[in-house]
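Blinded run. Sample ID left blank on purpose so nobody reads anything into the name before looking at the predicted structure. Input follows.
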Amino acid sequence: MKKIWILVCILLLTSVISYADVNGPYRDGMIEGYVKKVLENQIQIEEYDGTVHLLNLDRKVKFQIDGKTVGLHDFKTGMEVYGELRGRRLKYLESYSTENLGYIPLGGKVRSGIVKKIDRDQIMIKTLIGKEETYFTSPATICLKKGENVLLSTLYEGDRVKLYFDEVDATMISRMSIEGNSILIKDLYRGKLARADQLEDEIVLDQIEVFRNGRWNENKNSIAIPFSSDLPLYVGGQKIPYKNLKYYRGKTVYMAMKDFFGTDKIEKMVVKSQYERTYSNKIERINWYSDTFELANHKNISFSEGTMVIKNGRLVDKESILPESDAFIVADGRGNNLYADVINVYNEDLNNSNIGQNYIYAGRLSRIFENAVYLKDFYLLDRNDWESFRTRDEDDEKELFYDNDTVIFDVENKKYISPKEFFAGDYAVDEDTDDDERIRNNHLKDWYGYIYTDGDRISSIMVQKDLDSLRRQRVTNGVVEKTEDDSLVGWTVYLRDTKDYSYRHDKWMAKNTTTRMNLSKAMIVRNGKIIEPYELQPGNRLYIVRDDFYGKVVVVK
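Blinded prediction complete.
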């Protein structure tokens, strides 16, 4: 009898230990342990302390193994797993298939997320479950976009990326895949909420307007758009559940729209709370303690995670707003109590971040060697304006390097030339000599070039006989509407949402009309290579140096 009581006590104690905190995962919103059993629409997980849970699946549950999307039945008994819960339902579950977690195949560890911050070789991403993680790049990191090798400098804050690692505990990225143009914000809409259908995850909007060329323009009378209940929804800076959206019928809403395989998709939506005021101004100062910023007109506006921030055509976190940013702001409130529903940042630079070291030069080709070019009396585009560098002797000249991968275009003869032809040609001659009869008789002179570089390496160069008047040139950014081969002037591009940089005002000035620009003698650069005008696509974002109607240097962003 005594043995029986001892056995009962042991069983009771074991039971208490194993199931001591059966509600722990539901309070914490997470569960870790091992797969016990996989059923039709349920999964049984044993926690590390032995507690067993039979979990139902959330309607939009996501499964991943080795960073790849899988199905429920790909999980096998005994697999070590990590899961996220919504109440008592499983909304996310991940695992690794390798038995030895200290070793994985090259590129076997994968992380996906949105780039939140770039600081030279450090990249912070926000993962699918909202966790912030920091990783590092190296010269050996491979960067791919649309299956093409690109420079790391093409990366933007707000880009969606997939990172690959060669070890489970590694923080050094071996390969990075950047999502294509589907990440870009296609349009900014404003409309009246007519209906919110929670069953179909669809909303109907009336009186639709689209933000184009610095103002709201009527677009459609009514549209029905799918809306995911997983996306955050904000009213006056306060996050609200999607099920409450139906109570805001008749309210004005702002929507950031993306093109998802030819279909409009809402990426973020904000509901107007009180009264709208708009500003196109410079953000002078930011107080991160109180989450407010001050405009150049001394107007103070608050912001939060609910503020829709658009920068470089991408949705970004509020931390991406910088002092001295020029922006279009939609404020919500009354009197001096204003809250920013939308911040659309105008600023666009030649480099997307401090990873990039791209420069644009213009100058006289003084000397050309087999792998180097020296510029005399040259100009450098700095802060969207040409800065002059006069050279008194050869020691003052700027040395740049070229190689077999450098693209060289001769504007006068309208043809690409090889590095050997560039070196052997008469693009740089000794103008001051009286000894060379050929130079004197043929009136040869140094040519000039527009040069796009990566550091001191020439990626692309366009050479011509005379230098343009750089004083007349301005820097513009905009989005391609269309390109056409005009029968009178040749290839021409039409741009929307264009902004000219004003050196006098030190700000980007938004234009309220479509801008038409000729590309017949422009150097168009994409990923460091010169492309033809017909290769530009609607939606491409351009950084342009132009002489009024004529484009000179066009960089596809």
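Unblinding after everyone has recorded impressions. The chain is about 5% helix and 55% strand.
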